[in-house]
Amino acid sequence: xxxxxxxxxxxxxxxxxxxxxxxxxxxxxxxxxxxxxxxxxxxxxxxxxxxxxxxxxxxxxxxxxxxxxxxxxxxxxxxxxxxxxxxxxxxxxxxxxxxxxxxxxxxxxxxxxxxxxxxxxxxxxxxxxxxxxxxxxxxxxxxxxxxxxxxxxxxxxxxxxxxxxxxxxxxxxxxxxxxxxxxxxxxxxxxxxxxxxxxxxxxxxxxxxxxxxxxxxxxxxxxxxxxxxxxxxxxxxxxxxxxxxxxxxxxxxxxxxxxxxxxxxxxxxxxxxxxxxxxxxxxxxxxxxxxxxxxxxxxxxxxxxxx
Length: 307
Known about the structure:
alpha/beta; eight-stranded parallel β-sheet; 12 helices; 10 strands; about 40% helix; globular
């Protein structure tokens, strides 16, 4: 059975609503459908229409469903937490109202997902991919983040039936192997699953397949990226922050980088993974004119090796 492949607005450079160079959401939906995708993530709240009827109409016009929404924010500070509670309600309300991605799954929980990502600590963002140099949270700050993630997860799951999944992310405060290990110790699978991302695992110094194997029982959803190894070595050596690294082209179409996707395909087949996979290729939105080419190439590549 073919696996189910989605995409996300970050492949068009859409991460920060304040960025003046973002392409229109109409362009993103049109090109996602044109490339052959049947589902897409919401991207940052407020990028796609936030009124449920307008969102449904826009997605329906392109034959798209929604696989996930994302919290990409500071999960540590108490001051930011009330805004995250409101954001969780808003995203989950729209995930329930929008046409949902097909509920295919094996042992993992089905779509839609609330992808929870910590990001917003400038010191961590500046030292993405630098496990020996990046500052770590104090025990108290870490436990505050765990409590915040757990509370947001409870809202998503118990009030809306939206599965929360935690995504370790380059430049965030959950990035490295020891942090991922602590995360799964502190938050049980009954509260939230994992969304592991091949590109972010590699970026942080982990082997993607080894990490997927180790945490397999906790994974509900997957992100696929590929890494240009020569650019990655340059940005790590130069201590370039994560989004500047993306602007340099550290992310590339699947199959053109360092991650072994034929081996990953074999791994997923052996474990009978039946859930969703979302392809992402973070970039500077000023380069969104090549997004259609790249998201098409990535999907065609996965299909060519059996996905």
